[in-house]
Amino acid sequence: MTLAIRPAAADEAETIPSADEIRAQLDRIRSSAEFDTPERARKFLGYVIEEAIAGRSGRIKAYTIATEVFGREASFDAQADPAVRIEAGRVRRALERYYLVAGREDPVVISMPKGGYVPTFARRIPTKSDSGGEPGAERRLLWLDSRWVTFGVAVFALITLIVAIVPRLTALPAVEVESSALTQSKIRPDIPRLLVEPFEDLSGGQLSSTIARGLTDEVIAQIAKFKEIVVVAQRGSVLPDISAPGSKPPAYALQGTVRLDDTKLRLGVRLVQRSDQSIIWASNYDEALDVGNLLTIEAEVARSVATALAQPYGIIFQADATGLAQSPPQDWEAYACTLAYYGYRADLDPQTHASVQTCLQKAVARFPNYATAWALLSLTYIDELRFRYRFERASPVSLDRAVEAAARAVELDPQNVRALQAEMLGLFFRGQIEPALKVGARAMTINPNDTELAGEYGFRLALSGQWPEGCKLVGAAVERNPGPLGYFETALAVCSYISGDYRAAERWARLANLQANPIYHLILLAILGRAGQAEEAAVELKWLHTNAPELLRDIRREIAMRVYRPSDQAKFVEGLREAGLAVAEQ
Q1: Domain architecture of the chain: domains with CATH
Q2: What are the CA-CA distances from residue 375 to residues 189, 360, 424, 435, 557 (Å)?
């Protein structure tokens, strides 16, 4: 059944659920296995809902949540500590996942619009087609006004299918490299193509027309920075030529409207599936109009649209993951491998890593000019080294192999930030810190909207000794990243550990919950050691002795490989010793 969510407006009292209905819905959500969140997130949601029901929405601020729900001191500073903002993001994603998976037919919809912590409530209203209207008259609305959408179900389905992909890629015939356009199309798999239509001017004035054209161009420029998709620009009413060999019509179209109202600018955007005109995503952006600062406004709005749509775990990624899992087209395997890489990042599991790495190896063998696949393959080699996967390999992967794959990706596409991210990490783990950071800074200049890149670059800055700048960048990336946060939450745990806030460090580590990852357990062990939690530390130490004994053989070398300054290395050694791990003197 197709359903639309009608806003709970003041003049539509019939759409506003009662307090009892809201509380019943809250119980339904919190008892569902699909609302998979820590206890603190559940308390967060319960608190803001009860405050809203009681008519105290004005009190729902970061400070009151931090002090009344999280138990923070009265000195809590929301500007310096992003804990509430990040927890709110976690709650939003959990709610979105719940309604996508388990709550599709629930009578009450609870949401928390981005930009605040006040929840909204609405009844689910059937569309005309549910009441016997014309078939196809409605547009299938998958996501409404949600800039951060959960990705999990489709991606995990793709990871499962990787087992089937690898043999199929192995059996495919080799491709000879020629100079013809037809052959060039064969050595790169189909990746998403997005048609950006000219934004419509709804106000009909000279200024609004200028803004509409400027926003269209700026959105195209910002989305084009993401190399995981191909942007196709439409000029006027003329569709672009797609008659070249190997070309195919764009699967998605981005449509926009611009409206001026005195000193306010509203941009409405929506992503449409061109095959059936269904609306995949829609959102509005409101800005105070300042003609003297118009270019800045256009750039900021365009960056927000590009980040929501085109980044890893963004709207297009999720739509493609869902489509590929349900109905894989021809030549889908290589592109599915890149999607599965990001699925692997959800829990950094060694077994998933091995399948994804093999899949990417087969993908670059068949599509040798696919820069993104080379970059992701390099990242899997780096992960195998830094996370200490697959110690039992007869021929362990070398860092040189990772660096070579990254170099191939950069050679193919010097503007590909995933390639530059791989190059940065390869240099970092070689001990070439300054060159690594220069590469990261260059990538950030190319595309500062990419939260995966921003978070990784921030972590490299922090581990090189630039803790305040790096940790701030990681925190900002966590706030804007719609995907799995475990890796970056672990980074924030390290940030808190270095600053001496072991309570916050443990909280971040528990939120990350990367139970299959050896380095995660090592970091948590050091945190528990410094926090004086001997019983919990013993559990982590036992896990490491059982599952990753090789990691503990030369712990000083392992730390030095990741943490640049000797003084910072010493802090981790101290924590591990206090946790009960024997660490030899230098």
Answers
A1: 3-131 (no CATH), 139-339 (3.40.50), 370-449 (1.25.40.10)
A2: 15, 10, 11, 18, 26
